[in-house]
Amino acid sequence: MDMGFRWIVLAAMIAAGCNGEVAGRAPSDAGTAAATPSSNPTSTSRRRIVVLGDSLTAGLGLPESEAYPALLQKKMDAEGYQFQIVNAGVSGDTTAGGLRRLDWALEGDAKILIVALGGNDALRGLSIDDMRRNLSTIIERAQKRGVSVLLAGMEAPPNYGQDYTVKFRQVYRDLARTHNVTFVPFLLDGVAGQARLNQGDGIHPNAEGARLIAETIWRALQPMADAATATP
User: Fold this and answer.
1) Which of 6, 16, 129, 160 has the fewest CB atoms within 10 Å of its CB?
2) Which residues contact residue 7 at a Cβ distance below 8 angstroms, ignoring those fewer than 6 apart?
3) Long-range pairs, 125-129, Cβ under 8 A, ≥24
């Protein structure tokens, strides 16, 4: 996939997300995501899989039932897994914002954390070192609580130069190796830049695009669910 196409999707997605225009979600500045009945930590006794992300995770422009976390829930239910998928996506969120609300997101019996953050850091040209520290802290805090982590990578804009782009991408690979977590190199793999898989703005995945994202995550998540199921 051409890097320019990837960034066109990410940059516009994030720019829209910075306005906090996600129904049922709080802006990242609020410090916590607004809980819906399906994502309230006390709404179920099932063990939880938390998806910590931005507008892609929140499902900007889609009904909540068509966002990829909801599609992951359908897969879990169809396969007989006893997990609740919690959509902790907040439009416009950065890695710093995700870190601020991490403890809230992991309340309850969280077993797996999917981290899909970093796109907003890239759009704003934020420090790669800061992003690395934020993501590393998120992973470390989750692991200290006995929560397994799936890290989904993002891409940086080419207009910041090749050095920034390469270093940005490498952060995810380094963290996945250092912390020994499950790794998906690019959340939008096969979706970014594909008009038929995005909404009319050509930016945000449509229902079919969200299904492909769910498939990408599911391939990595299912073995983790198996392992968590086998653990008391």
Assistant:
1) 129
2) 155, 156, 157, 158, 159
3) 125/160, 125/164, 126/94, 128/164, 128/167, 128/168, 128/171
Nearest to 30, CA basis, from 92, 118, 108: 92
Q: Look at residue 43 in the predicted model and tell me its pLDDT.
A: 47
In this prediction, residues 19-36 reach a mean pLDDT of 35
Active site residue 201: yes
Kindly list the distances between the CA atom of residue 220 and the CA atoms of 1, 152, 192, 224, in Å, as whole numbers in the listed order.
21, 10, 19, 7
Q: Give me the mean pLDDT over the 12-36 stretch.
A: 37
Which tens digit of pLDDT belongs to each residue from 74-107? Answer: 999 999 999 999 999 999 999 999 999 999 999 9
CA 18 vs CA 96, 171, 223: distances in Å: 14, 23, 34
Name the catalytic one among 28, 93, 148, 204.
204
Nearest Cα to Cα of residue 56 among 186, 175, 147:
186
In angstroms, rounded to a whole number, what is the distance separating the alpha carbons of residues 5 and 162? Answer: 15
Q: Of 29, 103, 130, 201, which residue is the catalytic one?
A: 201
Annotation says 179 is catalytic: no
What value does the mean pLDDT take over residues 200-214?
Answer: 89
- CA 24-71-41 angle, to 5 degrees, is 50
Q: Out of 39, 55, 91, 148, pick the active-site residue.
A: 55
Sign of CA dihedral 53, 88, 142, 138: positive
Beta carbons within 10 angstroms of residue 226's beta carbon: 12
